[in-house]
Amino acid sequence: MKIDENATIAVIGLGYVGLPLAVEFGKQRKVLGFDINTARIAELQAGTDGTLEVTPEDLQAAAQLNFSADPQDLKDCQVFIVTVPTPVDQANRPDMTPLVKASETVGRAMPQGALVIYESTVYPGATEEICVPVLERLSGKRFNVDFFCGYSPERINPGDKVNTLTKIKKIISGSTPEVADAVDGLYASIIVAGTHKASSLKVAEAAKVIENTQRDLNIALVNELSVIFERLGIDTLEVLEAAGSKWNFLPFRPGLVGGHCIGVDPYYLTHKAEEVGYHPQVILAGRRINDNMARYVARNTLRLMLKNGMDVPRCRIGVLGITFKENCPDIRNSKVVDMVREFEAWGANVVVCDPWASAQDVQHEYGLSLAGISAQEPVDALVVAVGHQQFRDATLSELRSFCRSEQPVLADVKSLFDRHEAASAGFTVFRL
Fold first, then answer.
1. Number of Cβ within a 10 Å radius of residue 281
2. Cβ pair 400, 427 in contact under 8 A
3. What does residue 101 show for φ and ψ, rounded to 5 degrees?
4. Contact status, residue 4 vs residue 12, Cβ threshold 8 Å
5. Mapping DSSP to helix (H, G, I), strand (E, B) and coil, where does residue 58 land?
6. Helix 293-307 vs helix 282-291: angle between axes, to the nearest 10 degrees?
7. Helix 265-275 vs helix 201-232: angle between axes, to the nearest 10 degrees?
8. How far is CA 334 from CA 176, 262, 331, 386, in A?
């Protein structure tokens, strides 16, 4: 199989994954960036990216990239790259709805000989078990006869300006060896870090889902250690720094595990494992630990507030940060929200501040309002939940000026501040 150099590539889904991909291909060949969100299309056509992953200059440099929300425009394309979200539902079961809907849209539009490449994170076998039947049903075409598939999992790290799309090695695979070669050639044209060719779609799917499962388990381990060390009266960071003096100790830190990947992908693997009759133990244990860390932080903050004689229902708690990671506007699967809900359940008045997040998105997604925290509207406790640079740059005296209590509590989730200096500034300190 050979991809025509003049073939138009359609990128389906223009979020954190799809847009950078569309931009890079758009610097070299004809690309149609497609998204059902008309507001997103209008924003990109105006030359701006609200996710901050792509600069206006990069958008302008992608001279052959056009945007559309009209499915009819997809009929002029020959290659389709699907980059839609793959979330979990309230019961942590894979929600394949966006992937199925995208496959239906592609199936209605794809011509004879089309190549459909999936980048969305899924469980091993999902492309052939879920997506291919949809493509066949909507197109009336036969898999590996009239159309072909590839799988090349995304490795985007939102907010990372160093490890960007072209600098991360790309896993690729195809539904036949010839298709794999074609997919490899396509991505090799933009990925300077090179590619790794997997032997099958399933291998590529499995490789992606275990990347984040491994990281999830490593963070779960240090989170559990943090819980143990707190009971022993030992500072976790000091322990990790001491252990880190050995050459092969892995430098993981405790924290809240949210976002679109690490807190979600393991559930895709465990779902498939249970389908084939195996109940995962280690993976789900790690998920339980990480999913409970936000409430653990909240309850320790409340415990110290009560110990300091505060009447929690009459207190204001300031939470600094709601995005799932630092220096990034991405609020998907934010575990800070779980912390806020716990504070609210105790009757506290919670004020959330985040200079990176969109107030409109936070209100729409979580029903929370963003506000400022200042000496004019002081709080009784502060939770530094996200390590945004603005928070790292704050001084302890500045943070102390935001508090009205004689013994305010500082929950330093990311260990941004020296705990001894924080105590000298008048804070009762908790940190993971």
1. 9
2. yes
3. -60, -40
4. no
5. helix
6. 40
7. 110
8. 39, 12, 5, 10
Cα separation, 429 vs 411, in Å, equals 6
**Which is catalytic among the residues 77, 131, 149, 261?**
261
Nearest to 402 by CA among 287, 332, 319: 319
Distance, CA of 128 to CA of 132 (rounded, Å): 5
Residues contacting 380, CB < 8 A, separation 6+: 305, 310, 315, 316, 317, 403, 404, 405, 408, 409
On whether the CB atoms of residues 318 and 248 are closer than 8 A, the answer is: no
Q: Provide the pairing of β-strand 428-430 with 409-412.
A: parallel
Residue type, 429: V
Gap between the Cα atoms of 278 and 294, Å rounded: 29
Share of the chain residues as helix, strand and coil, in percent rounded to the nearest 5: 45, 15, 45
Task: Return the DSSP state at 73.
Answer: G
**Cβ atoms within 10 Å, residue 94:** 23
Cα dist. 295→195, 264, 301, 342 in Å?
Answer: 41, 18, 10, 6
| CA-to-CA separations, 84 to 3, 6, 96, 117, 214, in angstroms, rounded | 23, 25, 10, 12, 23
Catalytic status, residue 353: no
Residues 6+ apart with CB under 8 A from 197: 172, 173, 180, 184
Per-residue model confidence (pLDDT) at position 277: 96
Q: Are 29 and 51 in contact (CB under 8 A)?
A: no
- The per-residue pLDDT for range 73-98, each reduced to its tens digit, is 999 999 999 999 999 998 899 999 99
> Is the distance from CB of 156 to CB of 52 less than 8 angstroms?
no
Burial of 410 (0-12, 13-18, 19+ CB in 10 A): buried
Alpha-carbon distance of 179 to 173, in angstroms, equals 8
The ranges of the chain with pLDDT < 50 are: none
Q: Are 18 and 32 in contact (CB under 8 A)?
A: no
Helix extents (H) in 18-130: 18-26, 38-45, 56-61, 97-109, 126
Predicted pLDDT at 104: 98
Buried-exposed string 175-209: b where 16+ CB fall within 10 A, e elsewhere: beeebbebbbebbeebbeeebebbebbbebbbbbb
Q: Measured between alpha carbons, how far is residue 61 from residues 45, 77, 158, 359 in Å?
A: 13, 21, 21, 30
Across-strand partners of 32?
10, 66
Distance, in Å, from the CA atom of 168 to the CA atom of 193, rounded to the nearest integer, reads 6
**Per-residue confidence (pLDDT) for residue 416, from 0 to 100:** 95
109: tokens are 């539009």
pTM for this predicted structure: 0.92
